[in-house]
Amino acid sequence: EPEVTQTPSHQVTQMGQEVILRCVPISNHLYFYWYRQILGQKVEFLVSFYNNEISEKSEIFDDQFSVERPDGSNFTLKIRSTKLEDSAMYFCASWYQETQYFGPGTRLLVL
Amino acid sequence: DAKTTQPPSMDCAEGRAANLPCNHSTISGNEYVYWYRQIHSQGPQYIIHGLKNNETNEMASLIITEDRKSSTLILPHATLRDTAVYYCIVSATYSGGGADGLTFGKGTHLIIQP
To answer: Could you give the angle at the alpha carbon of B56 between the alpha carbons of B51 and B59, nearest 5°?
Structure first.
């Protein structure tokens, strides 16, 4: 069964550094999403992406975040200058036939 | 904020049916009811969804009341591996395909007892 995959599974970075989180959505899915979950808190929507542009974004998705689909398979989330409060699980999802399917997540730790 | 209300926790004996309730009294006519679950910090796992009719798949059954203001997720024979946080979410889809980002609440922590 096709799955959404994410790399890396874990990433540790220093405050102020740039990180790129990668996702490979399920083939033939057209809408892509990023969510985050701070430890012990709810899963929060960040951004949706369709046809090579942002479709919707939340208040969390500020200028330090960007998304890109650099080729036909990868979907990336870039955090330009990480802060301590960016430490969280980041989940990618893709949408097909009324349903969003989530990847396993990347655990980001900012020191 | 989430448009659904769920009990924060529930227990169920292994092998019995687990019935998880959800209230969504302000649901709109074009919004689906989705159920996901999350085991530890893994990615949310899709379980089932429905619009008006009851639905069943290999994982669960979804019972939606006629007025669509509440629903129940049924896991027919719960196992220890079903221990997880279960999220009930209402969301519309775009007419041409796609959907808004999902709004997760705190969900129900279902604990299956041996």
So the answer is: 120
A37 with B41: Cβ contact below 8 A: yes
Q: Write the pLDDT tens digit of every residue in A34-76.
A: 999 999 999 999 999 988 899 999 999 999 999 999 887 899 9
Question: How far is residue A5 from each of residues A21, A26, B31, measured CA to CA in Å?
Answer: 11, 8, 28
B61, B70 contact by CB (below 8 A):
no
Model confidence at A91, in pLDDT bands (50, 70, 90)? very high
SS (H, E, C) chain A: CCCCEEECCEEEECCCCCEEEEEECCCCCCEEEEEEECCCCCEEEEEEEECCEEEEECCCCCCCEEEECCCCCCEEEEECCCCHHHCEEEEEEEEECCEEEECCCEEEEEC
Contact (CB<8Å) A100/B104 = no
